[in-house]
Amino acid sequence: MKNRVVSGYRPSGRLHLGHYHGNLKNMIRLQDERDCYFFVADWHALTTEYRDTSMLGTWTEEMVLDWLAAGMDPDRCTIYRQSDIRGIPELVLYLGMIVTLGELERNPTYKEQLRELDSRVVNTYGFLGYPVLMATDILAVDAELVPVGEDQLPHLELTREIARSFNSLYEPVFPEPQPVLSRAPKIPGTDGRKMSKSYNNYIGLEDSAEVIGKKVRKMITDPARKRRDDKGHPEVCTVFSLYPIYFPDDVERVAAECKDALIGCTDCKDRIAQAIACDLAPFRKRRSELVEKPDVVREILARGANVVNPIVDESLARAKRAMKIGNPHFGGDL
Ligand code: SF4
């Protein structure tokens, strides 16, 4: 039997190239290798976006449509929305009882976001406790593997710690999930910083070839290469960092030509822009076909909820029985 993998993503609306190469391709690859559960983490979004929830539904739909257009297949993985899973909040309550404040406050993301965001916005019970929600998402479906980047390892370690604490306090209920380190490349934005909507430096998956061309032409290159015959330094060039993705067999030749000023930045950029547009063309075609099916996301999420709810109900019943909580005659035959 294939190992079960779970991975959740905050609804962020239309996706960009950073998402595509960062997570989405991994998810699509994993759906053939593992028993995959991919969910829209709309409760996680609430931890920072609770003041204005008006776009959460739209962002969920847009993100799932992008997943599907990129190749995620509901017949090969389970796609669901976190807030459709009725057993999660109760399990969060039980797991929250065994996590100390110190464990939550040591979470590096918590400290970082308190610094970066307006502390009045995220200085909440919900935001401090979101690692418990994350742990519940993983443990509730008995996931054995969780794809993570290096920076997310502390979160997974806390999940493992929660599973260990629960199993030793009561009885063994939850498997300890293992990390699968993501091999995703980092995609720079057009200004050289991390690609992000909030920096407005992104290339959207929906962008036309013309828009992609314009955005790539604005990309930061080697600041020392001011004229066509100046020798370049590809290692500091944002455009060059896309070559390993789009022209993996051509990286050395392009680097040498740049260093010897044998190619100009305009040609170099146009080549990358065309490659991006060409790579995204099938995505754009599938996306426009999916938009013609207005119920597709609703149906897929409903189907996913039907699969996941019984799994989580069963985990919840096992946990309650181990904790000797509630009436054993309620909540199934376990
Ligand atoms: S030639 Fe290409 S790699 Fe060299 S600086 Fe210009 S855009 Fe960058």
TrEMBL record:
Keywords: Aminoacyl-tRNA synthetase, ATP-binding, Ligase, Nucleotide-binding, Protein biosynthesis. Gene3D superfamilies: HUPs (3.40.50.620), Tyrosyl-Transfer RNA Synthetase (1.10.240.10). Pfam families: tRNA-synt_1b (PF00579). It catalyses: tRNA(Trp) + L-tryptophan + ATP = L-tryptophyl-tRNA(Trp) + AMP + diphosphate + H(+). One of its GO terms (molecular function) is tryptophan-tRNA ligase activity. One of its GO terms (cellular component) is cytosol. One of its GO terms (biological process) is tryptophanyl-tRNA aminoacylation. Its EC number is 6.1.1.2. It is an enzyme of class 6 (ligase). InterPro entries: aa-tRNA-synth_I_CS, aa-tRNA-synth_Ic, Rossmann-like_a/b/a_fold, Trp-tRNA-ligase, Trp-tRNA_synthetase. CDD domains: TrpRS_core. Belongs to the class-I aminoacyl-tRNA synthetase family. This is Tryptophan--tRNA ligase. It comes from Candidatus Anoxymicrobium japonicum. The lineage of its organism: Bacteria, Bacillati, Actinomycetota, Candidatus Geothermincolia, Candidatus Geothermincolales. The gene is trpS.
